[in-house]
Amino acid sequence: LIMTIRQTNEMVNAGATPSSAEESINTASRNGSLPHQGHDSDMLFVQGLDYQSLFDQCPAALGIAALDGRILECNPEFQILMGLNRDDLLKQSLFNLVKHHQEIFGAMAEMLKSAENAKKLGQLMLQNTAETVKSRHWSGPVVSKRDKQLLMNITL
């Protein structure tokens, strides 16, 4: 997510090159969502946004972890909620910070299994159906080791 935020920030602020714009349109058309043409005011609105600052200043506690649980990025609210500073959190595994992480492992296993089944069927999740989206996303409550209620979202 943080890489996507950074890339989006760079693309919006630097402007898209003709080849990257064409590639984006091709990708969007494959996904069935072509961008709206002629909305310069919309582009002006997002141009110049600092997505990293939005992440950092979000009032919700946000943490991004790799599939193996390594924390890749977190905002100040997440640091406060977990009671650790950013440097210490980036050395942690998310699974060391939550109680009863077996449910998370189960959800991840199901998501990976459904993704593998989609590949075997040749779908590669190009369709944006409700069932496909559901199989790539899990959301549920978890409790931190500091007894704080957290909402965890996992997306493939």
Automatic annotation (TrEMBL):
Region of interest (Disordered), residue spans: 13-33
Residues in PAS domain copies: 49-117
Gene3D superfamilies assigned to the protein according to its UniProt record, in alphabetical order: PAS domain
InterPro entries: PAS (IPR000014), PAS-like_dom_sf (IPR035965), PAS_fold (IPR013767)
Biological processes per GO annotation: regulation of DNA-templated transcription
One Pfam family recorded for the sequence: PAS
Coiled-coil blocks: none
Organism superkingdom: Eukaryota
SUPFAM superfamilies: PYP-like sensor domain (PAS domain) (SSF55785)
Family matches, as NCBIfam families: sensory_box
Protein name: PAS domain-containing protein
Organism of origin: Craspedostauros australis
